[in-house]
Amino acid sequence: MTEDLINKKDIYFPSYTGANDKLITLLNRATQILSDWFSKTEKYGPLPLEEDFKCIMPEEDGSSTEDLFFEIQSLLNNSFNPVHPGSLAHLDPPPLIFSILGDLIAAGLNNNLLAYDLSPSITLLEESLCKWFAKKIGFNDSSGGIAASGGTLSNLNALIAARYNSGLGSDPDSVLLVSDDAHSSFIKCTRIMGLDEANLVRIKTDNKGCMDINNLKQTLDKCSLDNKKIFAIVATLGTTVRGAIDPINDISEICKEKNIWLHIDGSIGGIFALTSIPIVGLNNINQANSITINPQKIIGITKTSSLLLVSNMSTLENTFSTGLPYITSKENIINRGEIGIQGSRPAEVIKLWLGLRFLGLAGIEEILKSSIKRKNFFLKTISKNKFEIYSGPLHIVSFLPKGLEPKDSDAWTQSKVNELRKNKFMLSRPKFKGKYYLRAVMGNYNTKESHIEELLRLLEA
Ligand SMILES: Cc1ncc(COP(=O)(O)O)c(C=O)c1O
Prior knowledge:
This protein has 461 residues and is α/β, with parallel strands linked by helices. It has three domains: 3-81; 102-356, Type I PLP-dependent aspartate aminotransferase-like (Major domain) (Aspartate Aminotransferase, domain 2, 3-Layer(aba) Sandwich), CATH 3.40.640; 368-460, Aspartate Aminotransferase, domain 1, CATH 3.90.1150.10. The chain has helices spanning 3-8, 21-39, 65-77, 97-109, 120-136, 151-165, 185-192, 213-225, 248-258, 313-320, 349-381, 406-422, 449-460, and strands at 144-148, 174-179, 200-203, 229-236, 261-266, 290-293, 306-310, 387-391, 396-401, 431-432, 435-436, 438-441. Helix 2 runs parallel beside helix 3 (65-77), helix 4 packs antiparallel against helix 11 and helix 6 packs across helix 10. The N and C termini lie far apart (64 Å). The protein binds pyridoxal-5'-phosphate. Pyridoxal-5'-phosphate (PLP) binds next to helix 6.
């Protein structure tokens, strides 16, 4: 055994006695590297200009701590930096500091949300926080929810529960209705459920990007003629490209009348329901059977943080409970590995809980209001003569110079994205209705009006 290995054995795992001095030294050093990286953000851009990270794989002998800290530094230097004020491309805001602490604590605890025995306090925390969210959006006492690693998985949890509870769990003719502008993850969900893309029925959107109710009614009639059995209608609360909100009230009435599960994909807009910010169309969400809320997308809870809230917890239990023969169960406590797709799962709820507790409702509202304010400033300042603009009630704007043909939209957006990147701005270029657009997501708390003015100057040049 080499000397290096003998020394290393001291820091394989935390010591169960003593002061853990070496652990503290390592954590302090990692914290310093991370904090320095944040502090130097201005100097670099949201994306590294030159990429030189070398992916070195494990060798026979383990690396020294010095080598590893060097590689950690290189990893950071070559990473996307969401803290930079020019980072406006996606729904990936700067991380809340209390959420970073939550991730650290969760990693150290290494508890497992699979079962109460492996995460007693955290099981109760997740259950209580889901219930708190569910009550806040207007669900009643039977409600609750489950966390999952991202919006795609929360939507999948919901759709599997919808299909199972409607008795169509193994019916190949069962279909799901979403709008033309719904997120692409529904295609993935359809495949995972063993269905064809034809089982994902698309409803047209109106000129504001919202589901067209007349088209929905016609489609329902056609499904019935074709003997297709609908297990869910999905209303999107904040579409990915323009932040539109489907007419939840009308859709929920149809779902009630026809006894169809209503799922709301509130990955982007759902969190606004915790506030009193007047968002047009954000009402009656408690009429849904399930709703996805992704606190990772705007308020900065570190990834991943997504919740599926359901009006009736028994729907999740019916769908996912199999019994865990190798786990001891406690009376009146549901093992959380039995109410969703994931089995072993980290304590992601800690960073959500700490983030929300630190912000309070006033802080959450302040962050969300600031994102709308930035979007409104952008809209007020951009030239309406030059640009075709798509934006709904949330904090997302997509735009393109007027009159561009599809192939010119491809070239223009590509060259603008490159030019912006050199000037430390990062926007995305979604493909939408046959053309490429530039998209600005105004969820970055560090972005000031002066940054938006500079961005617009570059865009209009
Ligand atoms: C409306 C909507 N739903 C679902 C998702 C998927 O979320 P995730 O990337 O967390 O899986 C996204 C992602 O941007 C989204 O915009």
